[in-house]
Amino acid sequence: MAPITVTIKLFAHFRHGRFKEADHQFPPGVACREVILGLGFRLGEMGIVMVNGQHAPLDHPLSERDTLALFPLVGGG
């Protein structure tokens, strides 16, 4: 099967040394978890995961032209 293209958006310190927004290709049906780990993130540092502007679980399968947005945990008071 042909790979799918997913736009990945990183926020806050996730951008440091990486990118702000980029298109990546993955096998069809790849889960958010696999993309996150493939980018070198630990699952424990994920604050919010969104697909096409909606909250998504880590096992959400991605489709062609989806946009995956990753936000780190934020602390403070």
From TrEMBL:
SUPFAM superfamilies per record: MoaD/ThiS
CDD domains found in the cross-reference section: Ubl_MoaD_like
InterPro entries: Beta-grasp_dom_sf (IPR012675), Mopterin_synth/thiamin_S_b (IPR016155), ThiS/MoaD-like (IPR003749)
Annotated protein name in UniProt: MoaD/ThiS family protein
